[in-house]
């Protein structure tokens, strides 16, 4: 028996108090591919990015201008940007430092993202700096980017837990977020890098941000599904008023800090829930499914999206 | 790098308005195993059931007295019950008809579950009866069981969508539920058999039940994770006041009506969320992880629980 009559979209049942539209910030080509072992051909990355943009995603993070020594998967960052057409505003790029920003500017980027760690240990392990030094460096990169007329988004890692330190104080996260907003970021994306957060934690973290003068309109949520909590956490985030969620087509990406292949929240699964809730995204689910399927096939792995698996 | 300092339980952040304790109704040995291709040895089923009960689960559905011609995986139903000790109250069994009830009574069962379909097509395809005939048959089985001093739970299938009919009217579901309550069921478990429901739909369905005089204390929710929505739907169910959720250790079970191996919500993933929300269940997560791991290993498949995979 197979599904014969089920419509390809869920029944719509809006929930009181939720936003009527949200943004899905697609991170598969950057956060996803940087964590995959395989190296994808430049033309396939470009095809993937253009397909996701065609599907209606307003923002599709394209790549990272990180050192190719550290992330060889994204060594073709400039070549990827060169294939995306004249308007690069929908295709932000991650810039880990001033050198990365210089390369991004040379490649024509008009939107960048910087990232910092909410915890001391991850800053030292991942960035080889203290948390304070990493924050200052990000602020400096943000200032340079703003001077050059770019928009700046901020990522905060390990907002819900840290693999070395364990619990992470929400106040510490909100202080880092506030510093990035002060440095000119239009939005901070709060990353549950190891996926340990749960729904009440999400609500609390957003509330603590509000108390630190980081308004909910400046907060995005970035969940990894390592413990299966990502969509429940989105639901809590919606109820807290958050209107931007990061996700990865096909759920590509891994979690390098846990013994599992489960990575980013799959864009398809997010879209399914938002559609069911009657929340507008402007995104065509079927086109995202198709783009994600091609990319996961190139990576030689099954899709990590349950919606894509069910519809496939 | 591996997780070194992360505690094995999430940080606790209660959410206003949620229940402080809930029941987890374990269905792995019945709903899970009936949908798996492999046949598990009777002594391993008994070991699984006892381990789950030892883990603190108050109710562990043990098996189904369905015809072995239809479900050979559960042909040893009587032998399984015989291995569970004297008190069988924590180990309900599914009885599809009067013949099943007779076998269950002979085997000493003291708690049974009956099931019906919310939709006409599924009743005809799965039970070879009209929906009305199936409901009458279930009511009759329930009456016999109550006469014999047993407790009766009711399952309603296809509550959120049907693979042949598509959309399912919440009113139709609530009418079936009301009939089962009228027939003496202490609780109805609303099954999203094909996993297509989303959070707002859950809230709406519970509200419609309330309007049909099916109080929320008599409603349990039974989600399949086919489209990744199960835990977000539990979150919505908690907010609607539901206090009993069905789940399967290791996420065992498949969804025979969709092209994917994804089946029941994994008990471990549910427990992770409930722990994070500070909701008492009385269940030890590590023991459930261990029991689920043994069973999925016997079935020759990876765990379907993301928590079990991450902690493993």
Automatic annotation (TrEMBL), chains A, B:
Coiled-coil ranges from the UniProt annotation: none
Keywords from the named record: Lyase, Metal-binding
A Gene Ontology biological process term: L-leucine catabolic process
GO molecular function, one term: hydroxymethylglutaryl-CoA lyase activity
Pyruvate carboxyltransferase domain segment(s): 22-289
Similarity comment: family membership: Belongs to the HMG-CoA lyase family.
Protein name: Hydroxymethylglutaryl-CoA lyase
Organism: Aeromicrobium endophyticum
